[in-house]
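Record type: monomer structure entry
Structure origin: computed from sequence
Chain ID: A
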Amino acid sequence: MSVVLEAGALAKALKKAAAIVAASNTIPILANVRIETTSAGLQVLTTDLDVEYCETVPLVSADGELATTVEAKRLAALAGAAAKGAQISLAMEDRQLAVKAGRSRWKLNALPVTDFPKIPALDLVHRLTMPGQQLASALARVLWSRSTEPTRYYLNGPLWHAGSDGMLRLVATNGHTLASTRVDARFPAEGADLILGPKFCMAAQSIAADFSGSVDLEWSASKIRMTAGECSLLGKAIDGTFPDYRRVIPCEVDDPIVVDPEMLRQAVRRIDLVGEGKTRTVRIGRSDGIIVVSTQNAEVGSGTEEVPADVRASFEVGFNSQYLDQVLTAIGGDSVTIHHADATSFALVRRTVDDGALAIVGPMR
């Protein structure tokens, strides 16, 4: 039993599959990739019990059937080491996987496929199809705002639900910032909300960004699966309750700031060069026609920069420089409108020509 594949195609699939494998495992087989011949080719599958990646790689030739599991990152490295355009051969020999590429020969210890766990994917009743690039963009615009605190696990991933207009909306928050974006796809049903797992989101973003076609999404209250061509990604949802984020979105004000987001972001980055510590603060001062970005550090020094803007009301407020940078990056565009009532309120940021995305950032008190 042996199979021959294009080494480049196998390496590409194994690289994505190996990214799902946890850095350390108490269950040895979870460090492995399951490889098995099917009528469509060689199926490559990995899991960490929360996320499962599967892809079918076309075969050049096959002599019998192959089904085994070997260390995922090791096999990915071997396939990646093959010369460009080379073919790679896989065969079982005495409970080991024999790998051949060019003049190179390796043998990897194997474990049986019967011991390899799979995540059951039953009752995925809701379905949606959208361009892969659209999904990748939506995830990128909110993931930066998710919480990474284990105690706030229900904020570790974005909420996937229907907005007030019935369109799909993704929302993430860490309590200090919030990011929300609309996807131009009709949400299929009420009660189909779920909180996406962070590892699923990051893998889905990477896969969808490299995929030129449309991706299919199927989900239930506890799982979601994305299919992109020959790749499929299955993930468990976070079992928790996402807070009512609508209550914390501030109202628009009569005299918002209108500014070039990239110009303001670059000013924040330059002034922050004299900042110090994990929580760096930049002050945003407002006066007619300009924003003054400033910071002061008793041990290092100070910095100020003026940014032209359409602004009238005058007051000064401090923001975490990293959060402000992330907000401006996520919203993007040529012009943003910042609604900010006073120095103690959250600031609401969206594009001047609204594209359905918004972000809020809290002041440093």
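Annotation 1: The chain has three domains: 2-115, 126-248, 257-361.
Annotation 2: The chain has a mean pLDDT of 94.
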